[in-house]
């Protein structure tokens, strides 16, 4: 195989073909392969065993023939076997492509019970199109190759087998001679026909002198096409798949293949890092080309995709020795889950399971695909709260939405389990779109605020099956209106701070409406130089990106922005930031404004113990008048709750609307008031 076709340059690390896999290949030296019409059926596999797949040699258009061999897991340790582990995106299409699979008997050599093995019976097996394309590309004409491929080596219809095989994946990828990353076939964008393959452009990106020259002096339409093609490559589905985090983190060596091109993973990650580091300059140059008028969105979603996170994962998740053995896990489960929030999986349980083997802390729940998704999610939130003493996890949006199977089982996602579809920056295109909104609670272990002071979380979790009333007007006890569902409840102690009395319109696509400005203290008839101090601080939640308090010069940037509002008093921050004449420091300020107000509202609330005292801030987009603002012990920011008691006479319960910023109440001030706020145990569902 030519692993470096088109990529042999002084800048690239040569990727050598492995030695022939002599340990297992002799088993496939069979003179005949028999085929039957019955579909392939798996043989049962033990807890201490794995399957490896032999991809039988063949030409490009030959039928894909494979054989599976069951081996003790210990045979993989220490790279005793020369096999590759495939990393790829499953895709949404059904398994419609037929390959042929047979079983290699467990005996050594080519004999079974003393008889010479001269045939292997193969049966049809159906795989998804992207895997089928990978098998055809990876196959070579003159040797059989050994792979571990999850969709084939694990019986995906057997939940029990999946539960004991998936925890072995970290070891499987660690011990693989190579992790082969299959990005899929190349799908040229319109207006890019005839341009070179984007993997060919890697040699330019990693040549520091050449990269500097083409982004300063030699920029032309051909260069724009090359950057657009590389940006398109980074939007491939592989960069959004949750399981790849484990696969690339565990790899000792890896290759990247797209279509007929293959390069070294190290070269590819360097190219991605250098490309992203120059992205703002590249965007500016690209916007001045003819191609940008034909493909205006080519660079739009690059930064918000998964490429940066995956590149960082190879350095920041595991520490390995020179032999590739994992010696330390560097991140807690909460950090992993909330870091890779935009990565998807076909099974919502894999929100947790796909990253479990990488975590530095111990999660008491082993993978079990028979457990309800809701029970797994609730156990994760409880784990985070107990291990950290913080309730901030309920303000983060980390969970994949429940699939139809979970919904059919009667699972109701409680409001304190945040799904990625509810992210502050999630638009109509879903969470994979622009990332202009930030969480107020910041990263785990790095508190930005301390609204509840040093108080640790005081809470109880319940997971239960119960009867829920789905008919609000029915009388208690009318069983016809009840249904058995899976529920998770959180009881948390805290302070009732204030009630919401007014909200602004929602900030949509970065446009701050005038009613929002007016609500927090600016009137157009008043000189902008007379805006109150709290006004400009609320717009940025009184913090810089690193968590430090907002600098006083941001007031000047705020005044500059207010002088540029439209005739209605609205400020389109997105359009404003697109102007080439905008001062750089104002751009920095506006980026922070966007991160705080994107898809949120401004609000006014009144304190329960000081009804004439007004508080202002930023709240979730679903906040309504009469919602209450609370400070839960262990939560670093205030939250908005809504009374959701279904029937008068039932125990009072609440729905979590989300986190909020309340100016003057973000650093423990509520706990220091002379007149104590009422302490409440909130039953949140």
Automatic annotation (TrEMBL):
Signal peptide: none annotated. Residues 83-247 form the Heterokaryon incompatibility domain. Pfam families: HET, Het-6_barrel. PANTHER family: ANKYRIN REPEAT DOMAIN-CONTAINING PROTEIN 39 HOMOLOG-RELATED (PTHR24148), HETEROKARYON INCOMPATIBILITY DOMAIN-CONTAINING PROTEIN (PTHR24148:SF64). This is HET-domain-containing protein. It comes from Lophiostoma macrostomum CBS 122681.
